[in-house]
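Appendix C: a fully annotated inverse folding record. The material below is reproduced so that readers can follow the format used throughout the book. The structure is listed first as C-alpha cells, followed by the designed sequence.
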C-alpha cells in the first residue's frame, strides 16, 4: 500500500483532473491540505445519497477519495465533493495576494485550500453560521495567519471588499451585498438554487462599476444559505430552469429593466444572454 503522501498526491491530481483542470497550483493546494484534519476523527460517515456508510477504520486514506464526508450527519451537513469544489475553484482561481470571502466555511477544509491559493500575502475571511462548526473551523485554521473565521452569517453581515467571494450554500438570488463587495475584476461564485431540485453554480465577474459578466459552471444542489432564500425568487428560478437552459447566460444585470435577452428575471436582478457592455478606455 502506498504512503499517505502518495494517496494525497493521487487524490489531488484526480479531483482536479475530473474538474477539467491541469492547474499545478490547484493540484498543490489539494495535495498539501490534509483533509483528515478537518473532518473529525475516524471512522467517518460517507454520504451515499440515501444516508451514510461508515468507513471500516480511521485510516486517513479513506478521505482521499472524491466523496462527501459527514461533518454533522444528523443535520445533513457534509464536507463537500472535492471534484465539484475543484471545478468551482478553477472557475474563479484565486491568485497570490488576493482577498477572498468564504461563505459557508463548515470546518474549514476549503477555507484552507483558498488560503493556500492566495498565499501568505493574501487574506481569507470565512463565515460559518453554525456555531459548533465555526468553532471547529477556528481550531482547524488557527495555524494560518492569513485566515479570519467569523461565527456568523455571510448573507446578513457586512463583507469586506473582495477579489473572490466563494459561497458554499444555496441562494435563490444574488445578494446585493455580495455584488457590492466585489472589487473590479472580482469573481463571485455561488449555488443559485430553488427550494426543490437542482440549480446551477453561477460565476459572476465584476467588469465595471455597474456591469457583471456571468456564466453557468455546472449543475448543483446545496444546503440552503440562511438569509439568501426567498419563496418568490425560488419559484421564479424554478420556472426558468424548467422552461429553458441557463447555459446561454452571459451577464447578470441589476435593476428591473429587463429585455428580450432575459433568461431569468428576479426582483432587482436578471440574467441575460447578452454580453455585458464595457466601454473601451
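Designed amino acids, in order:
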Amino acid at each position: 500500500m502506498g504512503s499517505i503522501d502518495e494517496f494525497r498526491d493521487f487524490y489531488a491530481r484526480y479531483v482536479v483532473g475530473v474538474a477539467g483542470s491541469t492547474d499545478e497550483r490547484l493540484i498543490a493546494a489539494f495535495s498539501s491540505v490534509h483533509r483528515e484534519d478537518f473532518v473529525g476523527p475516524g471512522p467517518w460517515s460517507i454520504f451515499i445519497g440515501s444516508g451514510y456508510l461508515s468507513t471500516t477504520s480511521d485510516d486517513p486514506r479513506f478521505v482521499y477519495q472524491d466523496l462527501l464526508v459527514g461533518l454533522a450527519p444528523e443535520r445533513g451537513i457534509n464536507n463537500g465533493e472535492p471534484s465539484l469544489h475543484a471545478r468551482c475553484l478553477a472557475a474563479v482561481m484565486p491568485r497570490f495576494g488576493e482577498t477572498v470571502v468564504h461563505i459557508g466555511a463548515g470546518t474549514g477544509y476549503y477555507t484552507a485550500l483558498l488560503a493556500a491559493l492566495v498565499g501568505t500575502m493574501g487574506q481569507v475571511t470565512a463565515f460559518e453560521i453554525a456555531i459548533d462548526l465555526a468553532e471547529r473551523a477556528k481550531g482547524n485554521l488557527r495555524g494560518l495567519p492569513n485566515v479570519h473565521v467569523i461565527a456568523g452569517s455571510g448573507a446578513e453581515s457586512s463583507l469586506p471588499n473582495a477579489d473572490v467571494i466563494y459561497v458554499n450554500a444555496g441562494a435563490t438570488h444574488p445578494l446585493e451585498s455580495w455584488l457590492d463587495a466585489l472589487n473590479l475584476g472580482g469573481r463571485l461564485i455561488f449555488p443559485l438554487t430553488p427550494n426543490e431540485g437542482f440549480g446551477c453554480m453561477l460565476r459572476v465577474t465584476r467588469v465595471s462599476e455597474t456591469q457583471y459578466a456571468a456564466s453557468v459552471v455546472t449543475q448543483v444542489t446545496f444546503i440552503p444559505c440562511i438569509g439568501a432564500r426567498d419563496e418568490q425568487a425560488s419559484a421564479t428560478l424554478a420556472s426558468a430552469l424548467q422552461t429553458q437552459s441557463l447555459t446561454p447566460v452571459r451577464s447578470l444585470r441589476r435593476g428591473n429593466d429587463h429585455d428580450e435577452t432575459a433568461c431569468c428575471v428576479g426582483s432587482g436582478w436578471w440574467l441575460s444572454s447578452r454580453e455585458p457592455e464595457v466601454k473601451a478606455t
